[in-house]
Amino acid sequence: MGSIEQTAELLLCLSPAEVANLKEGINFVRNKSTGKDYILYKSKSLLRACKNMCKHQGGLFIKDIEDLDGRSVRCTKHNWKLDVSTMKYINPPGSFCQDELVVEESKENELLLLELNPPNPWDSEPRSPEDLAFGEVQVDKNLRFMILMDGIHPEMDTCIIVEYKGHKILNTVDCTRPNGGRLPMKVDLMMSDFAGGASGFPMTFSGGKFTEEWKAQFIKTERKKLLNYKARLVKDLQPRIYCPFAGYFVESHPSDKYIKETNIKNDPDELNNLIKKNSDVLTWTPRPGATLDLGRMLKDPTDSKGIIEPPEGTKIYKDSWDFGPYLKILNAAVGDEIFRHSSWIKEYFTWAGFKDYNLVVRMIETDEDFSPFPGGYDYLVDFLDLSFPKERPSREHPFEEIRSRVDVIRHVVKNGLLWDDLYIGFQTRLQRDPDIYHHLFWNHFQIKLPLTPPDWKSFLMYCG
Ligand code: FES
């Protein structure tokens, strides 16, 4: 059995003199021997501490110049803000909590920052690696797997460890921060996404700072940060082999030409080169039809039969796609009877169940090019009291405008689908004022909608 004890790791020890130097409010401190940074918040009654590492993608916090109370810090990567007096993120509002460290005083009046580490579940009952034959994997007692939550979107994203005869494969695809960053080291194969650009941000945004130049620059630096983040994760976890494998998507429909041309994604070879520069980890860029014989490669990384490449000239993407079957389903929703009655709007948003939140959204049904759809709906939803006013209310309120292609939004409404279908497929265009990510709103429509679709049958019976 591996250890199942929780362990406490000492991350920082401040001498009594250093403790006396702590000021009220926010203190940035560094452990000089490890080079790691921490944040300490001191008030008359309270001392709180955390790593200076953003929960999102590990960015560094600095003083937030907009913070007048001396409580919040700003992440240098994507501007998330953390209130260190509560350890709650204030941007995105109502979203995440930072993992806190334990603060203790030693007998010698030093201040100790401790991290409590739960036991690693993948270390319990360890199995010694056995030889594998190509293609021998069977679902039996030799195979086990563990699903781990994402630290940022726990309800939505997961990663998985699969183990066969003592060999582990870690797949972290599309997790922002898999298992809060606590992951097994030295697995035999690690697979992850690499491309970025699936969420539509910022290419589907306009207004305010979202000019073409800003978006192009943002994408350039963001994708680079993503590459560096992945490369660092691989370096830290030291898998035997690393494979960037999810992210080969292309916006192929002609109506998505703008996204295709501007939403530049990372190249897996570029990531692998970065990894090779910084570590001894073996990398593999898979191509359609290629094979990696993991057993062979683990035994002898130079084995020429370990990787079989596809025939010369094999394409990564197809030349053409048959969109017909998909569009047929979407189009079927446009003429649905429910949309003859404007009361579908109230019915739908009441069903969705999101309210008591100060946000006003203008929803506009559009054609393929995001111009208003002739005869389509254009309406306001005030989520504070779930009303549908004709004009924006006079109180101060954050505002978003969501333009959605009519076939897609109606398909989503009719079938009670999650709004992932709107933005992951680049089917919306957004403007927001102020420029804030409303985590509570999007999270609700992304994952918290009722499991059964609206009861349109009884709606039609009663709406006359
Ligand atoms: S890493 Fe901090 S906001 Fe993204």
TrEMBL record:
Biological classification of the source: Eukaryota, Metazoa, Chordata, Craniata, Vertebrata
One cellular component term from this protein's GO annotations in UniProt: cytoplasm
Protein name per UniProt: Rieske domain-containing protein
GO biological-process terms attached to the record: N-acetylneuraminate metabolic process
Keywords, sorted A to Z: 2Fe-2S, Electron transport, Iron, Iron-sulfur, Metal-binding, Oxidoreductase, Transport
SUPFAM superfamilies (alphabetical): ISP domain (SSF50022)
GO molecular function: 2 iron, 2 sulfur cluster binding; CMP-N-acetylneuraminate monooxygenase activity; metal ion binding
Stretches assigned to the Rieske domain: 14-112
InterPro entries in the cross-refs: CMP-Neu5Ac_hydroxylase_Rieske, Cnh, Rieske_2Fe-2S, Rieske_2Fe-2S_sf
Protein origin, superkingdom: Eukaryota
Keyword Translocase tagged: no
Keyword Iron-sulfur: yes
Gene3D superfamilies assigned: Rieske [2Fe-2S] iron-sulphur domain
Gene behind this protein: CMAH
